Amino acid sequence: MTKQLIDIKTFLDQDEKKDLLRLLTAGSVDDGKSTLIGRLLFDSKRLYEDQLAALQRDSKRMGHAGEEIDYALLLDGLKAEREQGITIDVAYRYFATNKRKFIIADTPGHEQYTRNMVTGASTANLAIILIDATKGVITQTRRHTFLVSLLGIKHVVLAVNKMDLVDFDQKVFDDICEDYKNFVAQLDIPDVNYIPLSALKGDNVVDRSDRMDWYKGKGMLEFLESVHVSSDRNFDDLRYPVQYVLRPDRDFRGFSARIASGIVRKGEEVMVLPSKKKSTIKSITTYDGELDEAFPPQAVTITLNDEVDVSRGDMIVYPDNLPRIGRHFEAMLVWMDEKPMDPSVQFFIKHANNNTKARIDQIKYKTDVNTLQKSEVDFFELNEIGRVVLTTNKPLFFDPYKRNKNTGAFVLIHPVTNNTVAVGMIIDKLSPDDLPSKISDSHRELIRKGKGLISNQEYQKHYNQKGATIWVTGLHGSGKNEFAFSLEKQLFDMGATVVLLDGSSVRSGLSKELDYSPTDRAEHLRRVAEVCRLLNDQGIITICSFISPDQAIRNQLIDIIGEERFHLVYMNASLDYCKQNKPEMYNDESIQYVPGVDIAFDEPKNAAITLDPANNGKNPEQVIEYLRKKSIFPIH
Amino acid sequence: MNKYTLTHLRELEAEAIHIIREVAAEFENPVMLYSIGKDSSVMVRLAEKAFYPGKVPFPLMHIDSKWKFKEMVEFRDNYAKEKGWDLIVHYNKEGFESGVGPFTHGSKVHTDVMKTQALLAGLSKYKFDAAFGGARRDEEKSRAKERIFSFRDKFHQWDPKNQRPELWNIYNAKVHKGESIRVFPISNWTELDIWQYIRLENIPIVPLYYAKERPIVEVDGNLIMVDDDRMPKEIAEKAKMRKVRFRTLGCYPLTGAIDSEADTIEKIVEEMMTVTVSERTTRVIDFDQEGSMEQKKREGYF
Q1: Which of A365, A400, A543, B2 has most Cβ atoms within 10 angstroms of its Cβ?
Q2: Which residues of A touch B147 (CB under 8 A)?
Q3: What is chain A's alpha carbon radius of gyration, rounded to the nearest angstrom?
Q4: Count of beta carbons in the 10 Å neighbourhood of residue A220
Q5: Is there a contact between B132 and B23 (Cβ–Cβ < 8 Å)?
Q6: Per-residue pLDDT tens for A443-484?
Q7: Orientation angle between helical segments B191-201 and B38-51, nearest 10 degrees
Q8: Optimal mutation site among A244, A282, A414, interface B, most CBs of chain B within 10 A
Q9: Which residue spans of chain B are classified as CATH 3.40.50.620?
Q10: Residues A468-491 as b or e (16 or more Cβ within 10 Å = b)
């Protein structure tokens, strides 16, 4: 055996152990995106000689880069596109170094190609967002970043390209980074990195640039080789969406799936959804032998110790960690079809190996991909993105997309054309129509009857009051809290048993991990409503002071707490009054999601009491009178 | 790498298994197109893995142009027998009987009649609604944008403008009667991945991939092997023994060999890493016209 042969064997043995990084490149032709990719491919020595020869021939005819090799021409695939000089679809490129294999989803940058970028982003672990150093952060940069965040990519590299055109000036780079940092802070991207480079000249792409010695970080390729992505997968929640039932003979009944998340272990007790039947895992079978455990994204086959009915579309989970099970949910939807949405159509929905039908109940808003402004629309057109409420025919087993891409993503298919017309990401919040069906009154009564030894009547007699929630709504600065505290004090002094909940007390603990985005706000309020329900059930009056800007959210609160117990007090103050009252909230432009400013505040239509704080309407007396009249407190 | 990280090959393997199972679950009558080449061999192994310990629940189909290398046909028949595959061999009977071949009709007519037309007729004959192919995106520029589930109309034609968005690992398998989907489970594999996987898994391949002394003539710079007596005498006479191997396999008159000493997988990979000629250039048919693969795809070829 020659020495060389040993080397290649060692090389192959090591090479087999590489992992895989899927990345997205976003930017336009003008930013030098194709040049960057071309150079990554070229310099990592994965370009074959004859492709290069063909390239030099092509460049003469249609090149855009003068006498130098046009790296971009390596990439453009289809003929028509080459003639137009732009890439209009998602192209997948492959290269490898001795540390990693890379798959690049190369997508075009213009707004009309939003759907292409969304497609490329759906499978990527990381996104390179290209910026032209001579232009800085532009609308397109914001759009791309928003899409990357929407699709749940956790790692972003801001590649500040064309540094050669700004004399490799550190200040230009720093200013752009600062600008970007301010923008990206509003979005949900945990890991953001910044690299100054010149794709055309090769600075900081593969080789570190000596023309930017002020930059101490890694070059692009070195960064891509070392970025840690394996912990991005969800190993916590076992979701085993059965894809195929394998029954080669009477003795073997296996359930095949690509593990969506979590770790499946031999011997563990599992539950099958929707039947909720339990069994234990007998074996994890693969062609290469049995395993003791398997993890995402492995594709395995399991068998169970009991004869449990399992079919495609069922989900196997651990009994103490269930996904949401439901037919109603909210989602961010991206419209992918040339034809605008017809909301009356019943679409096919495909989600985690489940096929059923879905209808769009409501379009909550459309998000402008450039400004992130929300607006009301009746339907979506191509490339439009927004929040919708859906109802499916069959229950789905899902998790919020944010927590679990594999069980939070779905596509909508048109029933006539069979085209994939939209794609969606489920939001971590229950929808209005879901809540009443999940926690119905009869359900609640059953639970209570089973456990409590104190009846409603006994509570009422004891406290001389009925459990109820006084919910105070209004803009920031409308005087809600002030009002709620004085109401609490007066009721307390009169002998009532009251609990006060307000934003700062709940957010300091119960809703600690939630932010002020509409999604999180809804979840925050759902928790508050659940607390109210528990307290009201046990005869206690709750006073809640929350903006609760959205009528749909308020409807949910009513669903949870119960209509007869929910009493809305509206602090009806003008925006000007509120701004005067709380200028720190309204004058700071870095604060996002301010109701009445950048998100809508729906005027409540069903308030029990409307107060006018600007004209002395701050006295709780009116509410106390209302409670007396309704025999809520005191009863006697 | 932590304990719960797959290597790139195992991740690609899992992706392919998922795709193959999805087709078996969603389509009524799928088929796996088997070209006898290395990519096909990998694809078939992946199918075996997907349904283990069961058997692959769909047939394999080989479109025989009747001009394949003899060693390919031999390999196909032996391997299929050994594995117990449900193998359909389909060829264009009319074309064969009227003597269509590359030497008499040129590569364009031959490819069209004996490969493209034969494939379409085979798919129609058995009413397959999904057909697996072993194409990879890195093979050729026009394939870089190919979907994993690639939609074909009633005439098996591919319309680049009318392809469905494909996100995450959710594949749209809805077709109307007569329409079909071509499925490419190894889209994301590179040539190196294929060789590594063959090595890792010990997958048998046709011996033509390994360097050996073979009777070779040079035709327009391509090294063509004299595989039978259908090659015109005036060409075949010039044959000389030369140590060559094939990077891709197809019809012998249309498939160029390369000079090589590589007679093991390791040596093949080493050669591949150091000798820089991309693989499809040894397929003569691509020289017809620029964008020719795109053209063939529109007409229904893979």
Answers
A1: A543
A2: none
A3: 29
A4: 22
A5: yes
A6: 444 444 455 678 888 899 899 999 999 999 999 999 999 999
A7: 60
A8: A244
A9: 8-192+291-299
A10: bbbbbbbbbbbbbbebbeebbebb
